[in-house]
Specification:
This protein is of the alpha/beta class and 404 residues long. It has 13 helices and eleven strands. The strands form two sheets. The protein has a seven-stranded mixed β-sheet. The protein has a four-stranded parallel β-sheet with strand order 10-9-8-11, with helices on both faces. The chain binds guanosine-5'-diphosphate (GDP), 2-acetamido-2-deoxy-beta-D-glucopyranose (NAG) and magnesium ion.
Length: 404
């Protein structure tokens, strides 16, 4: 534990002003008054810039569960989580929609998120402060330990790293700055991040590389409670339901009229050749799956990030096999209103309601669809299916079934 003592000496100055234990026994009178007096505090976080939307959703869950679990234990009741605006996502390529930071309400039902964990949108926080400029007190830049298995074991640990070089972007806001940047090597469960938070008595604490801390309990009951609270915005649900009703002839949540496929291409088709099929291989596998599941089905919905030319080829091959092929093609208006992020969610919702779903191996876009199907109560065998490579091994997808 040498690093801890090093750390304590290096933090002696800042710790001296820390009188808040952030801890008291729930149900005790003294506790209630103490908490009432405590100032509201805020945790900000950001994620490694190249990470996509659906991995970011999982990172959100880790932070939201960290907040919610602490409150369940009667602790940290003055801490809130700031929802990081959606900005400059690598996969959002539509050039002509303006590149501004988007609030979570564009995509999610924020009231539902709030019912699970104490979260606020950044613009809500802005509107509470009188100043024109927002200053975060301390930014911890999380970093991996160079060797995760020191002495052959994966210990949960953290350590201040004095060699630190980081340029923060704050979701494109020029009027957000930070007073102090501290780099921290971190490995292990996210609940351990409270130790870092409690190093100072600051009001606004931020973490960069929020993807580094792990879930305390992936797939647990609280994991699913949090996951259920991540409802999409009304607008997106309505758009998807309208499409399903008009094109795929289903009104309920559990449809029997079509099958859906998440056909991930782009970087997956380039960098993961051993995991994804060719276009021909894709149509053959879809055909086989339909014949096996329910040979009466003729409607196939394809969600994809593929190029137009690839989509046309897949469509033609499936048509030749006798299927009706559907894509959600947004109008210019839809695109302006829903943005790339919203269009992708509409694709996901349409996939979620299908009689049978086939996903792409190790795609978080696919994982989020599978989770929503678990929440709706689909038979797991209709959900955990994947496209296989044309040749070679095809591992079965892991089944993360719901825990009630
Ligand atoms: N509209 C649409 N976009 C997709 C589809 N598949 C991938 N994308 C885009 O590509 C991104 C992929 O990144 P991510 O969400 O991290 O998922 P992963 O990379 O597949 O694990 C998504 O967020 C979308 O922006 C799809 O089927 N439809
Ligand atoms: C920072 O600037 C944005 C516009 O770019 C504005 O909406 C926001 O309210 C500003 N924040 C503060 C704290 O004034
Ligand atoms: Mg990704």
């Amino acid at each position: 534990m040498i690093f801890i003592s090093l750390l304590l000496t290096s933090l002696v100055l800042t710790c001296a002003e820390d009188n808040s234990q952030g801890y008291c026994i729930a149900n005790e009178q003294s506790c209630a008054t103490q908490l009432e007096e405590e100032e509201e505090k805020f945790i900000f976080y950001d994620v490694n810039p190249p990470e996509g939307f659906n991995l970011r959703r999982d990172v959100y869950m880790r932070f939201a569960i960290m907040m919610s679990e602490a409150r369940k234990q009667g602790r940290r009741k003055n801490w809130n989580l700031v929802l990081p605006p959606w900005y400059n996502l690598y996969h959002w390529k539509t050039a002509d929609v303006s590149n501004e930071p988007l609030p979570w309400s564009m995509f999610f039902d924020v009231e539902s998120l709030k019912a699970f964990a104490p979260v606020v949108e950044l613009h809500e926080l802005f509107s509470k402060t009188k100043r024109k400029h927002f200053q975060i007190d301390r930014l911890y830049v999380l970093q991996n330990f160079p060797n995760a298995f020191e002495n052959g074991v994966f210990d949960d640990k953290w350590e201040i790293n004095t060699h630190c070089d980081y340029t923060a972007s704050f979701w494109g806001y020029k009027n957000v700055t930070v007073k102090e940047i501290v780099c921290v090597k971190f490995q292990g469960m996210i609940s351990k991040l409270w130790e870092v938070v409690m190093q100072s008595s600051h009001k606004y604490v931020m973490f960069a590389h929020g993807e580094i801390p792990l879930h305390d309990n992936y797939g647990s009951k609280s994991f699913w409670e949090c996951r259920k609270s991540m409802k999409f915005s009304k607008k997106l649900i309505e758009t998807a339901k309208k499409y399903i009703s008009e094109n795929l002839h289903c009104e309920g949540d559990i449809c029997s009229t079509y099958i859906s496929v998440h056909w991930r291409r782009q970087d997956f088709a380039r960098a993961r050749k051993r995991d994804v099929p060719s276009i021909k291989g894709t149509s053959t596998q879809i055909d086989k799956a339909i014949k096996k599941h329910n040979s009466d089905i003729v409607d196939v919905f394809i969600a994809s990030d593929a190029q137009y030319s690839e989509l046309i080829q897949l469509e033609n091959q499936l048509k030749n096999l006798g299927y009706r092929v559907h894509f959600y093609s947004p109008t210019e208006n839809d695109l302006q209103e829903l943005r790339d992020g919203g269009i992708a969610i509409v694709d996901q919702i349409i996939c979620t309601h299908a009689a049978y779903f086939i996903g792409t191996h190790e795609s978080t876009f696919t994982f989020r669809i599978q989770e929503d199907r678990e929440i709706l109560g689909f038979e797991s065998s209709t959900t955990f299916n994947r496209l296989c490579p044309d040749t070679g091994r095809c591992e079965k997808p892991s089944k993360w079934t719901i825990v009630q």
